[in-house]
Amino acid sequence: MDGSSSPSAEATGTVRAARRTRNKPEDRHREFVRKAIELFAEVGFEAGTRELAQRLGVTQPLLYRYFPSKDDLIAAVYQEIYVNRWKSEWREGLMDDSRPIRERIIAFYEDYTHTIFTPEWIRIYIFAGLRGVDINRRYAATVETEILRPITLATRQSFGLGGAEPPSPQEVELFWTLQGGIFYYGVREIVYQFPMPVDRPTMIRNAVDTFLTGVGPVLKRLADQETKDNSTR
Amino acid sequence: MDGSSSPSAEATGTVRAARRTRNKPEDRHREFVRKAIELFAEVGFEAGTRELAQRLGVTQPLLYRYFPSKDDLIAAVYQEIYVNRWKSEWREGLMDDSRPIRERIIAFYEDYTHTIFTPEWIRIYIFAGLRGVDINRRYAATVETEILRPITLATRQSFGLGGAEPPSPQEVELFWTLQGGIFYYGVREIVYQFPMPVDRPTMIRNAVDTFLTGVGPVLKRLADQETKDNSTR
DNA sequence: ATTTTTACTTATCGATCGATAAATAACATT
DNA sequence: AATGTTATTTATCGATCGATAAGTAAAAAT
User: Fold this and answer.
1) Is A228 exposed, middle or buried (CB count within 10 Å of its CB: 0-12, 13-18, 19+)?
2) Which of A174, A194, A203 sits opposite B140 (nearest CB)?
3) What is the chain A residue with the closest CA to B178?
4) Of A69, A76, A94, B46, which sees the most CB atoms within 10 A?
């Protein structure tokens, strides 16, 4: 493929005559993680360390100076994407009583999808889920406590239902359906690469409007069931 | 791990002293695909052919007598799961005007989730999506034409809206949100292995009730926009 | 009973993977 | 300018992967 004379250079994945510029460890670390995110998003975690090294213009064993093992590199990738990119403003915005609930939810989903609807975020999230790492379980737990429960309480209030009791599982599950529906839009767009004839803001508006219009009666029914269960218990 | 003396037996993945029972080719073919589905659902497509052979109690090269390459085996897996398990009754049931729309949709999703909410179906579907094969694009296209468009038309009718014009992209997208929300319930249950405090039928009922209650006004708005667009065009 | 067919195994190749040890050269310290 | 530190490369190991060629034995055909 290339005209390199040494066959061992091909075998070891050496790029050719080393550049040998020396960088600060912190910069390298960040650079490695950044490119690893890029590569893993494309190929998945079975992407070779040699491929990564080549994209970095660096030899493969150098990676092991910064990450004891490939799994540690992967852990750093998780940290960067799913921890560092989380915005605490999401929760705050959703709990801001001064704005109407519809506006809050739409604003949240527009910003949230803007953050997570990238190949890096979505594909790596799904790769991780299939791998069985607990990243997804932990992330979804965060979504539930930081996003869905606040939304549930705020929505309940805006319908003049119930007080401050914690949301019931059925209530939370209801809002998971909205979350999942919107998330799956991103999966179709980014993973399956569907042509998406409806743009994101429109999709979000329609989904939220449908949901908020319909959720009132169901929440009411759940609240009634709840009080009945309590009285018969 | 095992007490086998020969190291080459370990290396080649030989199981031990061959059983040498001779089977009919068609039976073998089916057996291979069945076990391949099981294995791929667990590990993904990077599962080794040796691992598969071992689970079948057969040597690895025998696989290549039935499938020219690993990719052909994978193709057979797709065919079995996503083509052979599709039920034409789904479309028919959804278009059965004699039953109320809510009942039809709930019945469909109960049967549909019963079919696809298995580790085999969901995990392999997601593995395929990340691989970039067109399985998912083709499957989703089928879902859209065979399921979502009929649902859209039936729902529209039940609200006394519009005639037989084909559903607009925005309308279809709306029903994709419901589909995605329910699908994502399965992903959380089966892939992320969340504890699911709300059972499937209840989730489906709540989701469909919320959706059907709220979708009326939005469909109406979309229909009005449509006619306005047509008149100004 | 002998021959023919073919399902199945043994053995092995070449590529690629994650990881380690040792050599080298760029930068910091004095 | 000499020395020390460490970022980076070279070389290589052992395991595992998909795939192929050649041998073996079970069933079918005669």
Assistant:
1) exposed
2) A194
3) A181
4) A94
